[in-house]
Amino acid sequence: MFQFAAAAQSGSSILGLVGPFVLMFVVFYFLLIRPQQKKTKARNGMLRALKKGDKVVTIGGLHGTIMEISDDIVVLRVNDVTKLTFDRGSISHSINPDVEEKE
Fold first, then answer.
1. What are 21-34's pLDDT values in tens digits?
2. Where are the alpha helices (DSSP H) in 1-103?
3. Could you give the 3-state DSSP secondary structure of residue 70?
4. Among 1, 44, 67, 75, which residue has the least CB neighbours within 10 Å?
């Protein structure tokens, strides 16, 4: 009878040790991992949707208009004569003029 109680007690102690780790992983998933995955998915969608003529801002803060675009290279027109070549991943966000006019 004593062995039966000891086996039951050790099984519940293992659950007591693993339970907080599982709970901590669930909390980390919903507070850190899932929001970061959503943000990454939205950014990749924005980068795929870029097209010629879009106004964008680079990670460094440079504003420009897309003149040429390929799979991994973007050529931005900064002013009338200056064109700069950037990696597509260096685009921070796109500026939609229609949204700015409505606000």
1. 999 999 999 999 99
2. 2-28, 34-49, 97-102
3. coil
4. 1
